[in-house]
Amino acid sequence: MAQLRIALAQVNPTVGDLDGNADLIVEWSRRAADAGAHLVAFPEMTLTGYPVEDLALRSSFVQASQRALEKVARRLADAGLGDLPVVVGYLDRRSVSLVRAGQPAGSPLDAAAWLHGGEVLVRSAKHHLPNYGVFDEYRIFVRGDRLPVVRVHGVDVATVVCEDLWQDGGPVGVTATAGAGLLLALNASPYERDKDDVRLELCARRAREAGCALAYVNMVGGQDELVFDGDSVIVAADGTPLARAPQFVEHLLVADLALPAADPAREPGRTPVEALDGTTITVERHVLTPDPVPAYDVLPQEAAEPLDGLAEVYGALVTGTRDYVRKNGFRSVILGLSGGIDSALVTTIACDAIGPENVHVVLLPSRYSTDHSVSDAEELVKRQGVASRLVPIRGMVDAFEAELELTGLAAENLQARVRANVWMGLSNQEGHLVLTGGNKSELATGYSTLYGDSAGGFAPIKDLVKTMVWALARWRNAAVGRDLPFLHPFEAEPIPEAIIVKEPSAELRPDQKDRDTLPPYDVLDPLLVDYVERDMGRDALVAAGHDPALVERVIRLTDLAEYKRRQYPPGPKVTPKNFGRDRRVPITNRWRETT
Amino acid sequence: MAQLRIALAQVNPTVGDLDGNADLIVEWSRRAADAGAHLVAFPEMTLTGYPVEDLALRSSFVQASQRALEKVARRLADAGLGDLPVVVGYLDRRSVSLVRAGQPAGSPLDAAAWLHGGEVLVRSAKHHLPNYGVFDEYRIFVRGDRLPVVRVHGVDVATVVCEDLWQDGGPVGVTATAGAGLLLALNASPYERDKDDVRLELCARRAREAGCALAYVNMVGGQDELVFDGDSVIVAADGTPLARAPQFVEHLLVADLALPAADPAREPGRTPVEALDGTTITVERHVLTPDPVPAYDVLPQEAAEPLDGLAEVYGALVTGTRDYVRKNGFRSVILGLSGGIDSALVTTIACDAIGPENVHVVLLPSRYSTDHSVSDAEELVKRQGVASRLVPIRGMVDAFEAELELTGLAAENLQARVRANVWMGLSNQEGHLVLTGGNKSELATGYSTLYGDSAGGFAPIKDLVKTMVWALARWRNAAVGRDLPFLHPFEAEPIPEAIIVKEPSAELRPDQKDRDTLPPYDVLDPLLVDYVERDMGRDALVAAGHDPALVERVIRLTDLAEYKRRQYPPGPKVTPKNFGRDRRVPITNRWRETT
């Protein structure tokens, strides 16, 4: 056996920020070197950020990524880090490309490179391209066909990229054939509820398949609708977990591994291998340092505990909100605070994300607002210490009504739109990003006003059903005092109990309650989860025990609300399906599950 | 040679309207029978409409399509049309499917069927799946691997679907091997400027490759952002055009063809053939009627002239608007009429699409509106006969300003948002669809107000640069009296000359002009076309002769406006790239073409 100290740099790059991401690579490589690592690996597409979507088709962007890679290799050497092998994901292209209709322009590659001695030692690219859910990679990438195996201190280390682990056949099987001692997987694997367990099992299975230890480095941070949770992990050849990084923070996971020494008879060169998926993959061997390091004392193993269910979701929401604000160049946010649970939770998430001193709320009472709405909102302002102002909307609504005869729903929507005008105006005047408070239950059923309460730049809880909103509010209050990296240190419960227990109301007409329009949330929400997240049809929903009349009603509401959902701002995705680009149904569609 | 009278039913189905689309199939099959046709073909996915996007992944929808196909076969027989072979596109699934990560759930197929004698004779599916631009079909379909060859009155007729023509290898080459006498191609090929010429050349090339005549039937009508222009065509084995249908109207193209008689030695059965694209396609032969029909007198050939450039674009805009309104269940539209060119053109398009009696406009003068804005708008109302009302916004703006200190851009945006509140309120009250008037030049550069002038349900001219708006306004005035199916019979020029010649202004502050903020449109627009539609990078733009400083400025504006574009309603797509789902760039993106 040979000893190897590896470092997995679980970092948070920004899409398109080539200079900033290069700085990250140099800085975390330095930390790895300081920790005595023999090798450091970064996530998939660290240099460009992920996902780059159609930017991959812009030739100037691909060239910028290629140039940035060469430059970061030189910078590492100039910084005295030339001896440390650095494995990093970036965007490249196939140099000899087939020009064919339907092939992505310029044949881009979701690539990985080994940097060493100021140069790019070897380049490879993701072989299996995901093309489902949030992924559309057949659109922007062509597949890689190479497996690098690099000998580092006498250990043969192979590298693959993300989806290569999720599909059968391809580079993982070839790794076994190639007899590697360690498989490094570079990932940008988005967070979904309970995905951590799935990933750990997958890593264990693929390690056994590859016949060697597997080191899985994942991205962390938010990018538009996606949140990456980190949770990087190392497993032994038999699938046993060896080390694990915490979720939702940048982290350097350093681990000492005892790995099989490479067979010296395996010499540098290229060998094509059948990949058992109808393709051929070329194993490309390099030798950096042929001999094992002298024996040394190992570090204690680090094994972060994965977060429990609600903590994990809350962490994803805070991370998504923080990075959307920050990476889009904002420092502060503004939102309407109604006294209801949704805007209360969004305010709390915003405080946890960017600090109460950067959170601005507006209380916008109308003639239908109850006294407790205003007083509950004021109590929350006091507890959280956010900047607050009161803008009564009565005069503005009156001015519209002087010119227009609006009744019923039109009159209700007017109030919601007047409120949106106020927060958009303050956003334009003062430069805050507008947060909007809609949840998935109201978004799915269309229980919101287009250009009203749905208006804004980012929707932190758009992927939470209402019962989850309550559960997270209670969780957050109970979490006061816990040492989690995504919580602001409030000293008392940030959300007044009165806001959590009150009956939900839009307060757009006298005595209005959500239940006048919608089924009770504890009945509605499980049905929405089955319909929207599991894509179950009418018959399957009824068979699963949902009330047939309710199924008809909710499907009708949900299918009709499609247009409104299309106009909704991004928000963090925490469930397997949300609304947005991973559920694409035509707006014009006459087919109904129900008749 | 054998004679065959074929009918191509260029129809306009609606996505999801299985019953309505089945009615179309029965009705147009009846027309084909009445015209003495021996065979009728419908476009790709006629039974379901196209594109169905993620509806293809909903198992209940696939089943509904399969059942609807069986039912329409029986209905045709019940209507006495059982002897007429009917070839129709629908949604099916592969019965034995590989369950693998990343494969579309349920293995859906973009299928085609031959209906005859009340039954489904043979089923096949699109082999080449487009996955670029507006298409993402790797996401929702698996590929077909069968080529039906059906003997009809002694002629072997093969069928393929749309993209099968656009890619090399696959079913077209196999058609030659199979020795077919006619290749039927079922299409839903979206309109793009000047695509008609490309398609005709493609058909000629593929006919020569298949070694037989080719009949190309295309969908017509609008579906969300896509517009199908029809333009169905038949070419001889040497590529010579034989018949052509008009654009933007439903049409039955009937043509008498003299085709090679089938070799009787080729008997029914299945034969696998190498498809020269790495796959195998099974030729499935059927014999319906082995012997040629007795000689008969042929009909005169029909050859519609394709429309000239501007007429074609205008036809696409009217068709897209008409079908978006109608297919979404609206009868009328409402929009703000400013006195400027954009809202004037949109009003005219709306009148052409659904008639002036269904078009409602609102004049919303502010303190900065010029007198000529109101009088020019009133002149247009008079010429077009639309329903008009005047709602001054001064009082509403004053009411906001009484509560908020808004200056500069925030104050300008407020006015635009107050206007949007008015038309959204009237829409909610009276049930009209809101049209919005933004053009591609202002959309690209961000020169519009989110939730203000950009608010609405459909954006008819979102894919036109400003100079094109002017050109189409002049074209429409000059087209008075022309007999085109997408023009309302105005007796005089519908757009006042004063509106066309005035200098563009948003009129949100005193003496404001577009040129205060934007470069002149005759300089800006060609640059936007190169950057947005051709995806050229900075260096390429400069090399193409654009002013370097302007390139820097416009790229900066355009990249920063990404978020606003995401919130924009659909509109017809008439250029190869527009904004919307066929240009997907992350909202959070720090990379700039310029520094």
TrEMBL record, chains A, B:
Q: Which residues cross the membrane?
A: none
Instruction: Please list the residues that bind deamido-NAD(+).
Output: N413, E442, K564
Pathway-wise, it operates in: Cofactor biosynthesis; NAD(+) biosynthesis; NAD(+) from deamido-NAD(+) (L-Gln route): step 1/1
Q: A biological process (GO) annotation for this entry?
A: NAD+ biosynthetic process
Highest taxon, organism lineage: Bacteria
Provide the GO MF annotations for this entry.
ATP binding; glutaminase activity; NAD+ synthase (glutamine-hydrolyzing) activity; NAD+ synthase activity; nitrilase activity
Give the top-level enzyme category: ligase
Annotated InterPro entries: C-N_Hydrolase (IPR003010), C-N_Hydrolase_sf (IPR036526), Gln-dep_NAD_synthase (IPR014445), NAD/GMP_synthase (IPR022310), NAD_synthase (IPR003694), Nitrilase/CN_hydratase_CS (IPR000132), Rossmann-like_a/b/a_fold (IPR014729)
All copies of the CN hydrolase domain together span 4-259
Q: Is DNA-binding there in the keyword field?
A: no
Give residues annotated as binding L-glutamine.
Y132, S189, K195
Cite the active-site annotation: E44 (proton acceptor), E44 (proton acceptor), K126 (for glutaminase activity), C162 (nucleophile)
Q: Which GO terms describe its cellular component?
A: cytoplasm
* Function statement: Catalyzes the ATP-dependent amidation of deamido-NAD to form NAD. Uses L-glutamine as a nitrogen source.
Protein name as catalogued: Glutamine-dependent NAD(+) synthetase
This protein's gene is called nadE
